[in-house]
Amino acid sequence: MPHSSSSTLRTLPLKRRICFLIKLTCFVSSVFLFCEFLIYYVVIFQCHWPEVKAGAHKGDGEIPTSVLKALFLADTHLLGEIKGHWLDKLRREWQMERSFQTALWLLQPDIVFILGDVFDEGKWSSPQAWADDVRRFQKMFRHPVPTELVVVVGNHDIGFHYEMTSYKVKRFEKAFNFTSGKLVTRKGVNFVLVNSVALEGDGCAECRAAEAELAALSRTLNCSRQNRTHSSRRCSDVGRLPASAPILLQHYPLHRKSDAACTGEDAAPPEERNVPFKEKYDVLSREASLKLLWWFHPRLVLSGHTHSACEVLHAGRIPEISVPSFSWRNRNNPSFIMGSLTPTDFALRKCFLPSESRVFAAYGAAGALLAVLLLAHCQLLTPPVYFAQRLISKHKAV
């Protein structure tokens, strides 16, 4: 009658059992440590800042101090109390926290931008739930003083246009010091932050306020780019900013028909690429998009919302990069964009995070190996081995 694994273990010498259990614990701990901690360092260590023309380099692979190093990520979607299961929260928030903290430590950016949908349920959150979500966000995305964190608003933070209220907008502005039409200038590089949810064009109170702020900022930027000696009278009362074409940062992408032209391993799945986008829901309206391009003449646009990567060219010269989701809940292969920026040039590079399927595969392989080791140690694999040997000996005898 075959022995059970537990009875076999009990018949082994105590010292051998203890030694085996120690080795087993070390093996399990090593696998867990690698899959939940070290893998982020292994993967992100392979990412390097792109080079941009900005004078002589200090050394091999180094970025000059005049270059602004910026990270761009989007759609973190921190789960809320309504739809978020505690285990799902624990897993996703640990993944994002480890990725973000590892990226900060290895890459040391000057500034980080999150392009909206920070939360999943900001549009529904009660004051208490909102405060809890903000606290968790601040813990996960903590950063050293030299690094600046800038957050753009998304539809899940304040609701789609029909859900957006003054209370939700002000709540977000207070938590993240955000206003539509806010200008962030670092090392001569101008960034324009846009509340794309408020660009509905229907004259709502929040829409009017957002458009007024953007129009005023457009005037200031355009006046700053004019030659001082040829500035018109309408610019005489405008403060000067760095004469650099701005980079537009927003949650909704500018208008495009679909993701049909998008390619790459993190683009939308093939079955979704030809699905037409709905204006003012999936992308900005054509009118709002043209207005932003006419107001700011940006040299680059970065957006989120679609959870997938895409690169399109507007007016034949203005590139827009859709940044994929930073959450494994939305993608198997999240990523972020690394940008080396100067007032006149930029270079971008994508940094992928660990694929969740590979992490699960590592756990599966480790589990299978663990089962084999356990069976071998309990001598449950001996009979099949002897059976194979007998078959071989009989075959030779024949």
Automatic annotation (TrEMBL):
Topological category with respect to the lipid bilayer: Multi-pass membrane protein
Q: Which GO terms describe its biological process?
A: endoplasmic reticulum to Golgi vesicle-mediated transport; GPI anchor biosynthetic process
Q: Report domain Calcineurin-like phosphoesterase positions.
A: 69-308
UniProt GO molecular function: metal ion binding; phosphoric diester hydrolase activity
Q: What is its main location?
A: endoplasmic reticulum
Kindly list the residue ranges recorded as spanning the membrane: 20-43, 360-387
**Family assignment from sequence similarity:** Belongs to the metallophosphoesterase superfamily. MPPE1 family.
Q: What is this protein called?
A: Metallophosphoesterase 1
Can you name the source organism? Nothoprocta pentlandii
What gene name is given for the protein in this entry? Mppe1
